[in-house]
């Protein structure tokens, strides 16, 4: 090289490049286990007690399913009679009130309950 005032030297210090340590999942990988066997490393195998059985989930589910299958009770709410629905609507219309105004005047039912009563749905709780 011409024109340079300094001398060029080489650095002979060794450079070590390392891979990061394998994660837990990588250590359980079949390739990693086989490589450890070939290298003569000690390998520990532990069988978990409920592994691949799924007994806990299936036993409780089957009990609940059996109870539901044996249940014969009718689980529907009583409906508001049509006569009551018509009487509420007629009284409200006679007083020229909207559903929300009727709910505010009575102070006992929120608007949603007034709507369900007028539409002959289940009674408010």
TrEMBL record:
One of its GO terms (molecular function) is DNA binding. GO terms for cellular component: nucleus. Residues 48-60 have a biased composition (Low complexity). It holds the Pfam family MBF1. The keyword Transit peptide does not apply. Residues 48-80, 106-125 are annotated as: Disordered. Residues 10-80 form the Multiprotein bridging factor 1 N-terminal domain. Keywords: DNA-binding. It comes from the Eukaryota. Residues 66-80 have a biased composition (Basic and acidic residues). This is Multiprotein bridging factor 1 N-terminal domain-containing protein. It comes from Camellia sinensis (Tea plant). The lineage of its organism: Eukaryota, Viridiplantae, Streptophyta, Embryophyta, Tracheophyta.
